[in-house]
């Protein structure tokens, strides 16, 4: 088991397999996109599998594949198949924007993937284009319907942006009435590739109050260990909703997460810009014991919460990256 100095055990790895994305969401990156990494800078399948094996040997039993948009990686499907075969892994999930996903759903189910997080900020085509700077809502909704049909564990992730998609909160919640899905509303974070005012008026408490105005019987569920989301049930709804305090960061106390970027940087906190370069260590010939020691030390040095992690970053500018380069 990998533990930090505060007694928290790391058992969940969020693995970003690519930095590229086919959307340009306003809260994630500038309109012109980013300077993508050369392919040689990305981890190879063998490097990814080696690190996943090492992490599982150290107690990680849950891996979520992220990006960028993971389905832009051409070798994703065989890579997923190998990851699901690793000893000790009980749950492999994927976070996707859904544009390219529908065609792969039967294959994902066949190799044992059951959990899909779908990024969806609006049900309105015009707002979808305004937020993502691309068309494609119909394809995302087709993916959602197919995931429901195939019985996946589905979470919809919605970033709440004042004066942008507030009108979508109730329609998105209405999706949970007849389907056993979870819709999670996320505070906007300062990761759009630019330094900007890192404040939000739509905090978790504000979002909760707004939802309660429309669903007064909203009932808070018991919190699950390590969850970043406060979960709520609505009588008569098959699904539930969640609210994630991603900016105000009220869930750090029992954090069990690690992040591995597409270029092999191990990050112990979303808000800490720097990390430990495992890819370079592999390419310099480090053996498994060396890599495990690097991981143990990084986790031991993990900050107590996101605010302290941000303060530990070498520069404030480095903190305000794109989620595509951090790993969602």
UniProtKB/TrEMBL annotation:
Broad class of enzyme this protein falls into: lyase
Keywords (A to Z) from UniProt: 4Fe-4S, GTP-binding, Iron, Iron-sulfur, Lyase, Metal-binding, Molybdenum cofactor biosynthesis, Nucleotide-binding, S-adenosyl-L-methionine
Catalysed reactions listed for this entry: GTP + AH2 + S-adenosyl-L-methionine = (8S)-3',8-cyclo-7,8-dihydroguanosine 5'-triphosphate + 5'-deoxyadenosine + L-methionine + A + H(+)
Domain Radical SAM core span(s) in chain numbering: 5-223
EC number(s) recorded for this UniProt protein: 4.1.99.22
RNA-binding in keyword set: no
GO molecular function, one term: metal ion binding
PROSITE patterns assigned: MOAA_NIFB_PQQE (PS01305), RADICAL_SAM (PS51918)
Gene Ontology process terms (BP): Mo-molybdopterin cofactor biosynthetic process
Cofactor(s) it depends on: [4Fe-4S] cluster
Protein's recorded name: GTP 3',8-cyclase
Organism for this UniProt entry: Sphingobacterium allocomposti
């Amino acid at each position: 088991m990998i533990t930090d100095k505060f007694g928290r055990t790391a058992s969940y790895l969020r693995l970003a397999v690519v930095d590229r994305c086919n959307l340009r969401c306003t809260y994630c990156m500038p309109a012109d996109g980013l300077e993508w990494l050369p392919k040689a800078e990305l981890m190879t399948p063998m490097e990814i599998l080696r690190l996943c094996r090492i992490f599982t040997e150290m107690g990680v039993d849950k891996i979520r594949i992220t990006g960028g948009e993971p389905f832009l990686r051409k070798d994703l499907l065989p890579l997923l198949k190998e990851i699901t075969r690793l000893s000790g892994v009980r749950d492999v999930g994927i976070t996707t924007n859904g544009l390219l996903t529908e065609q792969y759903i039967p294959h994902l189910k066949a190799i044992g993937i059951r959990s899909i997080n779908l990024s969806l900020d609006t049900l309105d085509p015009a707002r979808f284009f305004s937020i993502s700077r691309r068309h494609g809502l119909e394809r995302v909704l087709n993916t959602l319907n197919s995931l429901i049909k195939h019985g996946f564990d589905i979470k919809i992730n919605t970033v709440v942006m004042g004066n942008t998609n507030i009108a979508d909160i109730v329609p998105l919640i209405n999706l949970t009435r007849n389907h056993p899905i979870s819709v999670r509303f996320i505070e906007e974070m300062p990761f759009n590739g630019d330094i900007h005012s890192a404040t939000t008026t739509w905090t978790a408490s504000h979002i909760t109050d707004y939802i309660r105005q429309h669903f007064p019987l909203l009932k808070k569920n018991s919190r699950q260990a390590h969850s970043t989301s406060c979960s709520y049930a609505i009588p008569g709804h098959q699904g539930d909703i969640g609210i994630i305090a991603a900016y105000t960061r009220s869930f750090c106390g029992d954090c069990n997460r690690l992040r591995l970027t597409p270029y092999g940087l191990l990050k112990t906190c979303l808000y800490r810009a720097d990390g430990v370069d495992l890819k370079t260590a592999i390419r310099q010939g480090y053996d498994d014991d060396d890599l495990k020691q690097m991981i143990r030390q990084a986790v031991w040095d993990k900050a107590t919460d996101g605010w302290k992690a941000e303060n530990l970053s070498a520069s404030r500018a480095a903190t305000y990256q794109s989620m595509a380069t951090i790993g969602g």
